[in-house]
DNA sequence: ACTGTAGTGATTTTT
DNA sequence: TCACTACAGT
């Protein structure tokens, strides 16, 4: 077979990685070094050169987006379908295994997956059941605890809680009751999928052996993001039988706070047999100055595997640093730069504004709106997370599995049908006492005539509604089922009644859900990246659709327009690239976050986050910080981020050179009026004078304060309307 | 069932 | 500051 297409157009290290013998291999892939390319080409190499059957390849990613991209590129390169290959996220692959082997895994055949929102609701119910005081032990803390334990592979029963450790004893109690509630409802949360998949191997040696025979090679993307249970799952599956190719970058590990173990990369080198390592250091994305800056920054971190990005490309522009007076000034500056860039014939889609925390987006958004610049904020609510969608899905879940308490809990009185708190209490108590699901409890109470009056009527009404919906939609197409459910349940009407535009939007979303169901069935799903149906399994379309909704974000396709700026957190920018990038809020306390100040490891992760941010930029990078920032209602005066100081100064261009207007002011901060015509000492500039600033244009000097090189001049700029703007160290010329 | 108010807490997020 | 929650009152 002609194989040149697999190895052509690769650089030396890429080619080495792709064509390495099929044994354990670690590919240390720097940002923008073509790691997906290497993974895809390696799969093609294994199949077309080493003669592996496509079915014997297992390729694991973290996000659906990455999995979808990989599938697409494999098909493009190999001109074959990826249908037989196992390419998916850890969670979707775990789900696929558990759907097949639910018996061996000891779970319900029709188990449903719940997201963290439903998980929290369930935990709240457990609290009520156990009469735990929420004030003492916040719900979120229990959720954090449970997920953390599962990520480490620990069950509630494994925990050794000393009698005096009240925290641990309480958490264990909650974890235990939560486990039971999940068991009762046939519910699996995200962490449980992974834990069960791991236990599946441990408890069923024959099954493990079967899959070790089946998979001849395992490939893992973003290995630095694996947590303990994911590593363990891979470790057991691979054993000494299945070689692995892992790709990762320790310098881009930014998810330690949610359990990712950066050391898993080093562990791989120790735990797996004869691993070889190849570094991909040639970068095809950024200019030399950007790469040099990133390299020098990350060099401040200890214990790196070590890697230096280089490029054959241009030196490029310096990194521009802007010291804004406050967050509004910063936002205005960024918007001005974008408009300047757009006016030079560039597209706004090529520009991204990145920030450390979501709270920062608001001011930026305001500035964009004021300047009528189109933008889109990334992150936040996923399609399947919206209230109305979750409600609709809960009805569908209940149709698929009556025992799904999380679903029942959500819709039993949505829309309101007069089932009051008292009735619910009775129902829950009965369910707990009998250790049965809410649905079973309702059935019990209704048939035993132990309810009276209104409670009986309303609960009976709900019971009949679900049965009726089920009967009505038997044999229907999926989309008809969805459509029927949102209408007959009264959900559509309920949301339509909501006042304002919100109601309208919700109705639209519900219609979009029907549409999504239609497209899901016909296999033309633009909402989705998943499409990970197991051809060997007979799962109802509804179940498949619900799995999809649980495991996939359902992100809408990018807009038709290519003229909007993108705003996102540094975390969600990982894996992306933009010609023009702004890193905003480069201040101590914000970035690095004050929460990371205590532990060195957390600070290192912040530094890696900055490294990720810098390496997103292809052509031009701006960084900015605000001297004063309003945060949580009070003004904070932050120092410039240490990360700025860690950059090579020769690649930095300060848009406000400090030296150009250093004002030795010995007097107290002044409140002098602009009319006074007082000279600011040693500057030759007087209050009331007209000045020109190279970025802001013309203005009037109206005040100064501070002393020494801390002095600030306050200038009222004409083009800023009546706004006051204080500019420190500004380069000014008199006009 | 809806509405008002007082209290609270506030990186980062995928599945 | 502000957005979200729990709870009390109608």
Could you please describe the fold and organization of this structure?
This protein has five domains: 4-102 and 195-280, P-loop containing nucleotide triphosphate hydrolases (Rossmann fold); 115-185, Arc Repressor Mutant, subunit A, CATH 1.10.10.160; 319-374 and 556-655, 3-Layer(aba) Sandwich (Rossmann fold); 385-522, PCRA, domain 4, CATH 1.10.486.10; 661-734, Thrombin, subunit H, CATH 2.40.10. The protein is built from 28 helices and 23 strands. Helix 17 packs across helix 24 (500-522) and helix 20 (438-447) crosses helix 21. The longest helix has 23 residues, at 500-522. Residues 527-531, 657-674 and 719-731 have low confidence and may be disordered. The chain binds a DNA duplex (15 and 10 nucleotides) through residues 62-64, 89-92, 113, 115-116, 189-191, 193-194, 225, 254-255, 257-258, 356-359, 379, 382, 416, 418, 550-553, 569-572, 590-591, 593-596, 605, 609, 630-634.
């Amino acid at each position: 077979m002609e194989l040149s297409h697999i190895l052509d157009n690769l650089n030396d290290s890429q080619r080495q990685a792709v064509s390495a013998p099929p044994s354990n291999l670690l590919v240390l892939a720097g940002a923008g070094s073509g790691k997906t390319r290497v993974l895809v080409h390696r799969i093609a190499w294994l199949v077309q050169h080493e003669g592996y059957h496509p079915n014997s390849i297992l390729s694991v990613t973290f996000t659906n987006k990455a999995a979808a991209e990989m599938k697409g590129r494999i098909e493009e390169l190999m001109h074959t379908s990826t249908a037989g290959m196992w390419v998916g996220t850890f969670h979707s692959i775990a789900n696929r295994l558990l759907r097949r082997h639910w018996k061996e895994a000891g779970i319900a055949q029709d188990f449903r997956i719940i997201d963290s929102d439903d998980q929290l609701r369930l935990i709240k119910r457990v609290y009520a059941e156990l009469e735990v005081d929420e004030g003492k032990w916040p719900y979120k803390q229990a959720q954090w605890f449970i997920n953390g334990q599962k990520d480490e592979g620990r069950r509630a029963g494994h925990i050794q809680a000393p009698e005096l450790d009240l925290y641990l004893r309480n958490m264990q109690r909650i974890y235990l009751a939560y486990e039971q509630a999940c068991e009762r409802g046939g519910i699996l949360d995200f962490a449980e999928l992974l834990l069960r998949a791991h236990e599946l191997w441990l408890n069923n040696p024959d099954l493990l052996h079967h899959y070790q025979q089946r998979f001849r090679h395992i490939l893992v993307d973003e290995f630095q993001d694996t947590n303990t249970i994911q590593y363990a799952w891979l470790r057991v599956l691979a054993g000494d039988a299945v070689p692995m190719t892992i790709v990762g970058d320790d310098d881009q590990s930014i998810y330690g706070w949610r359990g990712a173990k950066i050391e898993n990369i080093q562990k791989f080198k120790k735990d797996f047999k004869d691993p070889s390592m190849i570094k991909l250091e040639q970068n095809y994305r950024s200019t030399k100055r950007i790469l040099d800056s990133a390299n020098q920054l990350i060099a401040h971190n200890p214990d790196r595997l070590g890697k230096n990005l280089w490029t054959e490309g241009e030196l490029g522009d310096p990194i521009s640093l802007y010291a804004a007076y406050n967050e509004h000034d910063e936002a205005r500056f960024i918007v001005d730069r974008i408009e300047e860039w757009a006016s030079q014939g560039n597209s706004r889609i090529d520009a991204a504004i990145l920030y450390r925390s979501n709270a920062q987006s608001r001011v930026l958004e305001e500035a964009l709106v004021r300047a009528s610049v189109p933008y889109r904020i990334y992150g936040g609510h996923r399609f399947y997370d919206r209230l109305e969608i979750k409600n609709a899905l809960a009805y569908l879940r209940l149709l698929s599995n009556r025992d799904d308490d999380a679903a029942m809990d959500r819709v039993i009185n949505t829309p309101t049908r007069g089932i009051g708190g008292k009735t619910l209490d009775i129902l829950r108590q009965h369910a707990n006492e009998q250790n049965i699901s809410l649905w079973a409890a309702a059935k019990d109470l209704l048939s035993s005539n132990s309810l009276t009056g209104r409670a009986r009527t309303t609960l009976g009404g709900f019971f009949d509604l679900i049965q009726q919906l089920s009967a009505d939609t038997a044999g229907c197409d999926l989309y008809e089922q969805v459509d029927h459910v949102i209408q007959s349940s009264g959900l559509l009407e309920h949301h339509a009644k909501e006042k304002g535009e919100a109601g309208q939007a919700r109705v639209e979303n519900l219609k979009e859900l029907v549409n999504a169901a239609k497209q899901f069935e016909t296999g033309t799903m633009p909402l989705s990246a998943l499409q990970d149906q197991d051809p060997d399994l007979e799962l109802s379309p509804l179940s498949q659709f619900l799995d999809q909704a649980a495991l996939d974000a359902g992100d809408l396709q990018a807009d038709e327009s290519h003229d909007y700026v993108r705003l996102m957190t540094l975390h969600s920018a990982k894996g992306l690239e933009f010609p023009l990038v702004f890193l905003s809020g480069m201040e101590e306390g914000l970035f690095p976050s004050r929460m990371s100040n205590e532990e060195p490891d957390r600070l290192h992760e912040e530094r890696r986050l900055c490294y990720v941010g810098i390496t997103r930029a292809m052509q031009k990078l701006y960084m900015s910080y605000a001297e004063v920032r309003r945060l949580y209602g009070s003004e904070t005066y932050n120092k410039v981020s240490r990360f700025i100081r860690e950059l090579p100064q020769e690649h930095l261009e300060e848009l406000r050179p400090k030296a150009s207007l250093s004002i030795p002011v010995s007097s107290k901060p002044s409140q002098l009026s602009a009319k006074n015509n007082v000279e600011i000492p040693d500057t030759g500039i007087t209050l009331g004078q007209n000045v020109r600033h190279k970025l802001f244009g013309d203005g009037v000097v109206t005040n100064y304060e501070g002393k020494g090189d801390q002095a600030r001049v306050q200038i009222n700029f004409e083009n800023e309307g009546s706004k006051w703007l204080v500019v420190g160290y500004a380069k000014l010329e008199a006009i």
